[in-house]
Design brief:
43% of the residues lie in helices and 14% in strands. It is α/β, with parallel strands linked by helices and 255 residues long. Bound molecules: NADP nicotinamide-adenine-dinucleotide phosphate (NAP).
Length: 255
């Protein structure tokens, strides 16, 4: 049985990916801060297919405990989905707050790097015990904002451009170890993302008004596509947008 570790598995794209991989025979080890949500997800999936532990990617001790749990739960770590991430606010730089800047950088960059390091260390250890080549697969949730930048998104876009840079550096670092590095870069996906960003439970009514956004299940299928290729195939990048979205700047909305 293959194993995937998913950060931010309590909602949205992470939850949909957890459900898809569990339904297709993988063991999923999911983490997020809201443990009650993880528990509720596990109760709807077949026993043993979704193991979970609370995880705050900004907290080094939480990341260590989570990876200790992953190590004790599985003798393989075939893939990591670096999905935990968020945007905060839409203020222009002149008005942005230190707290918003710090949170996005802490989660989307520092947290992702911390988790990636733990995954690489775990994978190396597990595979050395098996006396096999290292292997493994790191799949990052980047964004269309990792390719384009827009007013009101300087920090978020910087963090997602950063994910692109991290993936590129990693590809060079792991070359020769059979480890794969992929980025999935979606446009608008209807999740809790905009509610978190705008601190507004009704945000989705405005953000996705008059257009058809991607679903988290659409993105889970992209993750699956990257993960299920033969070992010699590395999907570097999947940039996926709603048909209604031409770019960060142009979305077709019915009046
Ligand atoms: N929705 C979009 O339009 C869109 C487009 C492009 C890229 N993305 C990217 O896709 C990824 C998933 O976002 P989503 O749309 O699925 O949003 P979401 O529904 O808000 O889910 C975000 C997930 O990240 C987790 N998370 C946030 N902070 C965390 C932390 N400090 N430690 C651990 N987990 C944390 C949340 O869990 P807890 O709150 O329980 O910790 C939640 O499970 C993000 O990286 C986002 O930037 C989203």
């Amino acid at each position: 049985m293959k194993t995937i570790i998913i950060t931010g598995a309590s909602a949205g794209i992470g939850e949909a990916s957890a459900r898809l991989f569990a339904s297709r025979g993988w063991k999923v080890i999911g983490g997020a801060r809201r443990e009650e949500k993880l528990k509720a997800i596990s109760e709807t999936l077949s026993p043993g297919s979704f193991l979970y532990k609370s995880l705050d990617v900004t907290d080094p001790s939480s990341v260590k405990e989570f990876f200790d749990f992953a190590q004790s739960s599985s003798n393989t770590a075939d893939a990591l989905l670096n999905n935990a991430g968020l945007a905060r606010g839409t203020a222009h730089v002149i008005d942005t707050t230190d707290a918003d800047i710090q949170e996005m950088v802490d989660v989307n960059i520092s947290g992702l790097l911390r988790v990636t390091r733990s995954y690489l260390q775990l994978n190396k250890q597990l595979n050395n015990e098996l006396n096999s080549k290292v292997g493994g697969h790191i799949i990052n949730l980047s964004s269309i904002a990792g390719h384009q930048s827009y007013a009101g998104g300087a920090t978020y876009c910087a963090t997602k451009h950063g994910v692109q840079a991290i993936a590129s550096a990693l590809k060079h670092e792991v070359n020769g170890t059979q480890t794969r590095i992929s980025n999935i870069s979606p446009g608008l996906v209807e999740t809790e993302f905009s509610k978190v960003r705008l601190r507004d439970e009704n945000a989705n009514n405005k953000v996705y008004a008059g257009m058809t956004p991607l679903t988290p299940e659409n993105i889970a299928e992209c993750v699956w596509f990257a993960a299920s290729q033969p070992a010699h195939v590395n999907i570097d990048e999947i940039l996926v947008t709603p048909t209604d979205q031409a770019s960060c700047y142009l979305v077709n909305r019915k009046k």
